[in-house]
């Protein structure tokens, strides 16, 4: 995992050179290179290898997924959205660069993601690149990330049930993880039930990711998390621990890990090892 | 032209169905279907036909270009950017739906654009779709639209020279027009000097578009324009009429039309007719 994360960090650093106009590139680099866990790009590379592809061919796609993730964080943190001051232990992008630059940096990262995949992917059949771009596009828009954030914002201050909570998390978190895995598999030469099995794996992992996030919000301090802790509770926001209780939420997390690894059984266990590892890592992470 | 615009409007309407979450789709449709002049998508279809392609194959790309244009208008109108209340004779998106929805609608339109091209383009070699996606991505990001808006914002209240003004307009306006034409030509089967000739045409047209905009801002009323007139002058913003004088700006516009049509000489005059027409239309438009 560390090797993959290092490769991704090097590729991300090279993907946004510090050129004119300086401020926008500083702002993009500030958030993109802020030391995220790189879960999504690692999943992308791992899925590419799992289906027999060469990891190197999926590096541009892995970077694209992280650019999009970063863009969604920058925009979600804005004052008119979640109004967050702290992200990954540092001031949020708009706190550091101003709102207008933060909005533009997000827009630039989003378009760079697609440019990057289309312009930098090598040794992959073009029809696979086209399929991956279509998949990635639908993961972000009004049927993906944006839909999740929209319903999340609209539900603030209202009573939210488990179904709606799952809708929000599937869209805000799972969709992009799903795209990371599915696009990695498509780039790597995967098709049909192989890709669909990995899609199911990614959906479970995505929801797991969010359930764990909710659990950490109520059990850890801001310092441990690198972001404002207890915020969900303070804002009376719907979370799994609040709707289910903490113990039931932990049980749900266990169930999701189980379902995710079940989907990996169709693969050679050794080749699937990174995906087993990631499921375990997400379930047991402490920040 | 009217036939092309009608086809585009029908395709745009179908590209964003009014589905759940309703509010985000309403917001996207509100701005996308607000009756813009469709100059960019028309250019895209015309370029496709000019190089011998079937217009129908470029419809998804034409829609994508208009989605991106709309997204840039929504984000540029935000309070922390140009803070505009009126656009195409109606309240701006954030005035009608709120800031958070406006930001998300822009993000959704941007990602939908790429999804749409990749998922809906038919009967075009995949490597052409990949090239067009790369071209489109670079037109928007930190070397395209976003760069122009960034420098524009940073230059407010400062003395701006003609070079910087041209940088702003080339990036804010020409880049997307250029992408519209170049992508249309790529989709239509164009390569090499044909595409590069059309790129030069589009650059002239893009700059022309902005020079005419600046001229209209000082010579027309808000009612005639469908947006706040005299705003550039009131805000002491750099414009061609302000830096060159109104007459010199008109002369510059004439020069740009001349250079644009010069690039069309390599083509069959009848087939190039729509592009001649557009150059003339942009030069003589009244709103």
From TrEMBL, chains A, B:
For activity, the cofactor(s) needed are:
Mg(2+)
A cellular-component GO term for this protein: cytoplasm
Could you tell me what this protein is called? Heterodimeric geranylgeranyl pyrophosphate synthase large subunit, chloroplastic
Which GO terms of the molecular function aspect are on file?
A: metal ion binding; prenyltransferase activity
Q: What is the lineage of its organism?
A: Eukaryota, Viridiplantae, Streptophyta, Embryophyta, Tracheophyta
What keywords are assigned to this protein? Answer: Isoprene biosynthesis, Magnesium, Metal-binding, Transferase
Pathway(s): Isoprenoid biosynthesis
Which Pfam families does the record match to this protein?
A: polyprenyl_synt
Which SUPFAM superfamilies did the record assign? Terpenoid synthases
User: What domain of life?
Assistant: Eukaryota
Q: Give the family, as the similarity comment puts it.
A: Belongs to the FPP/GGPP synthase family.
- The species this protein belongs to is Sesamum alatum
Q: Which GO terms describe its biological process?
A: isoprenoid biosynthetic process
PANTHER family per the UniProt record, alphabetical: FARNESYL DIPHOSPHATE SYNTHASE
């Amino acid at each position: 995992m560390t090797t993959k994360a290092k490769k991704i960090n090097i590729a991300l650093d090279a993907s946004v050179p510090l050129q004119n106009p300086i401020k926008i590139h500083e702002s993009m680099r500030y958030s993109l290179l802020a030391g995220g866990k790189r879960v999504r790009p690692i999943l992308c590379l791992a899925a590419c290898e799992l289906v027999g592809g060469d990891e190197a061919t999926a590096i541009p796609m892995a970077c694209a997924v992280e650019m999009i993730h970063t863009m969604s964080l920058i925009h979600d943190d804005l004052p008119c959205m979640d109004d967050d001051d702290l992200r990954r232990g540092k001031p949020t992008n708009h706190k550091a660069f101003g709102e207008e630059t933060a909005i533009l940096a997000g827009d630039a990262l989003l378009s760079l993601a697609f440019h990057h995949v289309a312009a930098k992917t090598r040794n992959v059949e073009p029809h696979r690149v086209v399929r991956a771009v279509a998949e990635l596009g639908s993961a972000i828009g009004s049927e993906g990330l944006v839909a999740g954030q929209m319903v999340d914002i609209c539900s603030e201050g209202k009573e939210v049930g488990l179904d709606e909570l799952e809708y929000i998390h599937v869209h805000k978190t799972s969709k992009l993880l799903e795209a990371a895995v599915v696009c990695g598999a498509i780039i790597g030469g995967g098709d049909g039930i192989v890709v669909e099995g990995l899609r199911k794996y990614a959906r479970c992992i995505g929801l797991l990711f969010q359930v764990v996030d909710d659990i950490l919000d109520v059990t850890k301090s801001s310092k441990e998390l690198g972001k404002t802790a207890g915020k969900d509770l303070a804002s009376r926001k719907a979370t799994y621990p609040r709707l289910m209780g903490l113990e039931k939420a932990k049980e749900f997390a266990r169930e999701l890990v189980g379902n995710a690894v079940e989907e990996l059984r169709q693969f050679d266990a050794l080749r699937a090892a990174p995906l087993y590892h990631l499921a375990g890592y997400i379930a047991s992470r402490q920040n």
